[in-house]
Amino acid sequence: xAYTINDACISCGVCEPTCPxxxxxxxxxxxxxxxxxxxxCGACAPSCPxxxxEx
Length: 55
Fold this sequence. Notes:
Layout: E1 4-5, E2 24-26, E3 31-33, E4 53-54
Antiparallel strand pairs: 1-4, 2-3
């Protein structure tokens, strides 16, 4: 199961460079995680200042 970014995302972009497989990108309204690329490592979750990244 891939990590996801919920509606609490403030589009700060802090999480994007933490992903080792570049699965995080800027979407229309907020950042998104590509489930096909996500390897469930969890490296992104601690970086989010609003805890918008969920497993």
